[in-house]
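Final report, closing paragraph on structural work. Over the funding period we assembled a curated collection of sequence-structure pairs, and we close with a single example.
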Amino acid sequence: MAVISSEENMRNIDRIRASIGGRDVPVIPLNEDAFAQLRCAKKLEIVPGASHLFEEPGTLEVVSRLAASWFNRYLGKGD
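Its predicted structure, as stored:
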């Protein structure tokens, strides 16, 4: 079984969207660093007022809409 490093995984990604909570302050710089290393179509969304579990009212719905938009754009029905 081959082990693929996270760096190799990042090179194989051709598009990505990540959503993080605006209240999850310790991980924002980590996500921004990882985001900067990606060499693909990318978008990082910081959801204001959200923690890492998106338990605050309305924040999970925001993340759900963002994820649905990404899936529809990149994995939607083919012609």
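The longest strand covers residues 15-21. The longest helix spans residues 59-75. We thank the funder for supporting this effort.
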